[in-house]
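Reminder to self: tokens first, then the designed residues, so the page reads top to bottom the way the pipeline ran.
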């Protein structure tokens, strides 16, 4: 199939719109490095666009009508937005679904210790990472510490110019001969990803004086006791803002493109929608995809199904059969990234079925691994429908797989929504260095995936 680089096809007006969209996306990235921050940022944008919190409407039993715009905030970690359509929910919804969690380093529940006059936070990495990529680099600490009595303390350290940063140390090469002989997955072990946070002792302390100094600082600056760390959710992420990449500024280098590069265009496609749609429109921003979508805020949970049920109650009056029909008659783009062809590592790709930077939104009929294991595998009729929508809107697209058949693979939330019987296909942006602390995407692909999601919602 012939490929055409997007940059040669855009008009001057489209290029200006592309740069504005990329700038907006970078702000979203910089404000949302965790799933909680993404939800907070998304809610602020949604409310500015006229969306209302569904929960108070549920509590009051306030009916909804066609054209109403509402959101369902689940545990501050997952978010569902709806624009109520003219048709009955039983006829199905048009859905965009992305995840807002990214690989990172999580702080354990009993983290603080001192060794050799230095204080550390013990950690457990989150998601599929190359552990060696996370050492000897500036890290920021984001999250919340929940206190007894219902109060929470927000933590965001390492992002401002005058903030301190944190670091995971590594061996100097002069004494690392044994380390460098290990396979890459063993060069840095999981238990060695502890974060160095201090080495200045508390004056007058008799033992573990550095640890004592940190506890005194936490009490003074944040009102936190050591026991409060048990109920904390603290995430170490790369410090610093996203950046334009390339001498031509055609790319964006940032932490968390997977999968906020699909989440933000999905959100914007909803927020930018005007008027009343025929079918109800929906956007899902979900947590926990990087660890299998398990837990109360992942797609294995039923928060999405519950949100649709609540919407059904306020529009038509709840019906179990109607809910099942609403879900099975829906169609969905599982908005998730794919790997981009990297000419430095060509042997792991099959070029005919690989996504390339600058060639547009990439659709994956199936994901999975080892013989399509764990994929939903969209049917050919739905693929043909998607082609017709994209061609009609002039959206440039490509079809891709993550790598050679027996090399690897990956998963998305597609199969978890396909279990309702709805048509689902993965549609996202190709990414270089996926799951690394710094990932690379093309601004052209970012803009085109937004155009794709707009076209899908309008079809």
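Designed residues (459 positions):
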């Amino acid at each position: 199939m012939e490929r055409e680089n997007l940059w040669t096809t855009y008009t001057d007006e489209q290029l200006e719109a592309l740069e504005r969209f990329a700038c907006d996306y970078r702000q979203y990235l910089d404000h949302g490095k965790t799933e909680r921050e993404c939800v907070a940022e998304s809610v602020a944008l949604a409310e500015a666009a006229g969306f209302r919190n569904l929960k108070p409407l549920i509590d009051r039993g306030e009916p909804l009508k066609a054209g109403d715009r509402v959101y369902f905030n689940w545990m501050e970690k997952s978010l569902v937005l709806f624009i109520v359509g003219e048709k009955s929910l039983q006829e199905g919804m048009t859905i965009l679904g992305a995840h807002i969690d990214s690989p990172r380093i999580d702080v354990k529940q009993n983290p603080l210790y001192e060794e050799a006059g230095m204080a550390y936070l013990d950690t457990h990495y989150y998601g599929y990472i190359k552990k060696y990529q996370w050492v000897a680099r500036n890290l920021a600490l984001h999250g919340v510490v929940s206190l007894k009595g219902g109060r929470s303390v927000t933590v965001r350290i390492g992002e401002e110019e005058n903030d301190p940063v944190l670091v995971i140390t590594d061996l100097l090469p002069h004494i690392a001969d044994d380390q460098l002989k290990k396979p890459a997955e063993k060069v840095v072990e999981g238990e060695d990803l502890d974060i160095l946070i201090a080495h200045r002792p508390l004056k007058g302390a008799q033992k573990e004086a550095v640890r004592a100094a940190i506890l005194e600082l936490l009490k003074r600056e944040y009102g936190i006791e050591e026991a409060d760390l048990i109920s904390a959710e603290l995430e170490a992420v790369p410090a610093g803002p996203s950046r334009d990449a390339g001498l031509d500024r055609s790319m964006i280098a940032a932490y968390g493109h997977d999968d906020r590069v699909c989440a933000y265009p999905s959100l914007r496609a909803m927020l930018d929608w005007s008027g009343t749609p025929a079918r109800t429109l929906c956007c899902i921003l979900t947590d926990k995809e990087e660890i299998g979508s398990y837990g109360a805020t992942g797609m294995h949970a039923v928060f999405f199904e519950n949100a649709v049920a609540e919407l059904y109650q306020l529009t038509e009056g709840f019906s179990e059969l109607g809910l099942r029909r609403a879900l099975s008659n829906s169609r969905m783009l599982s908005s998730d990234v794919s790997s981009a062809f990297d000419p430095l590592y060509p042997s792991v790709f099959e070029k005919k079925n690989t996504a390339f930077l600058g060639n547009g939104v990439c659709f994956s009929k199936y994901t999975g691994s080892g013989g399509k294991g764990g994929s939903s595998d969209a049917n050919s009729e739905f693929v043909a429908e998607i082609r017709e929508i994209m061609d009609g809107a002039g959206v440039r697209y490509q079809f891709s797989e993550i790598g050679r058949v027996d090399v690897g693979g990956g998963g998305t939330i597609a199969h978890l929504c396909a279990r309702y019987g709805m048509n689902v296909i993965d549609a996202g942006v190709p990414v270089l260095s996926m799951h690394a602390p710094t990932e690379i995407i093309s601004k052209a692909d970012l803009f085109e995936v937004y155009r794709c999601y707009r076209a899908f919602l309008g079809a």
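The chain is about 30% helix and 25% strand.
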